[in-house]
Write a structure and sequence with these properties.
The chain is an all-alpha fold and 481 residues long. The N and C termini lie far apart (64 Å). The N terminus is likely disordered.
Amino acid sequence: MAENTTTKRSWLDRTFKLSENGTTVRTEVIAGLTTFMAMVYILMVNAGMFSDPFGDGTNVLGVSYGAIYIATALSAIIGTVLIGLLAKLPLAQASGMGLNAFFVFTCVVTMGFTYANALVFVLIDGVVFVLLTVTGLRKKIFDAIPRAVRVAIPAGIGLFIAFIGAQNAKLVVADSSTGVAMGSMNLLNKSWGEVMPLIVTIIGLIAIAIMSQKKIKGAIFYGIIGSTILYYLLGLTTDMYDTLTVSIGNPLSAFGEWADQALVKVFTEGFDFSAYLAKEGNNVGSLVLLLVTSSLAFCIVDMFDTLGTLYGACARGNMLTAEGEVPNMNRAMLADAIATCTGAVCGTSTVTTFVESSAGIAEGGRTGLTSMVVALGFVVAMFLAPIAQLIPNCATATALIYVGVLMMNGVKELDWTDPAVAVPSFLTIAMMVFTYNISFGIGFGILSYIFINLFTGKAKEITPASYVLGLLFIAMFLFTH
């Protein structure tokens, strides 16, 4: 079939080495569309998380849905094109789930930094990632994190994301006596209009699971769209439409909001920490420690998320080298690092390689042409921001909860019968959710690992770099919280 290609096909073949990788343009296009459908939910979820983090209309960060929608789309386009052209891999990038939660709920809501301040952490993450990749220090830092903690980090983030989704859907609500409780679905005390969104979320989540079980590509995306349709159909049985106001304006207005509220805010406002220092109890010392520890947390999560995705996705497609390594690994990591820096400039959280890329690889994607198709999908999606705002919280919550399910997969690799493994792993996962802080979970995991091994005669298993990380987290706990 390769002999009958057109001139254009030959150019694509030469550029992306389609024949060498045993693939065709048609296969790569289908793979790209599959990956795009599987991850396009990030545009809606990320924009919703930044503009309305608690699902109650409170805009804590001061940026609009449209501004973050465009920032997320642009950074996804740039990151995906980079990894497709530099590394020639069928992978896609966008603002990472978990990392966006850390940005919003930890850096801004909990720590009290401004939206622009938090972008500085993302920029530092990207710059450090570039330096680590160029100098080859990435592997040494990877080795410094205990395996029990490394494996547990994605699971902890997944549970944290699911918790946020459940809160946004009102499945989990605040309770004065227990802290949190299940949202009431008792029709004797609640109106159908209040209960209906909770039921939509549950039905949507189950639908995503059923579609995933049946190997339907884009199950999460279809789940969001299906839940939205169900929400508005069931809305006919409530008084929702009596107060609902819908305004579909010019699609280009979102670009104006982005330029005004997000673009280069990391440089124009990000390095002004006066608002943080003005709060009682905060000082320059605590600011420096938080800068170091928070940037470190971004780097750790970004690094392990990227490494895990690269290895997992390429292994699934039998794309690893004879030595069992990811092809063009350094170029892929460099593309990820540059994309993160670009994301900070655009105004969104850390850009990372998406695990949903595996969906396209499973469809036969083998080259960077798959990435180009994904990027083109995001270009088209940029102009649909006004329509995307019609997606209700109960629909996007289905994606958050299901992504949490996907991220729990790694815990099966842990030996839960060994306390030296089980305790650090459990604390990493649990403390992320219990403290509403991802970095606290990582800190508890590393410190518990160090002390357990130190006092059980296994001090030799602790690397000097692990001690350094432990000291940084001790300083964070003692002087910043």
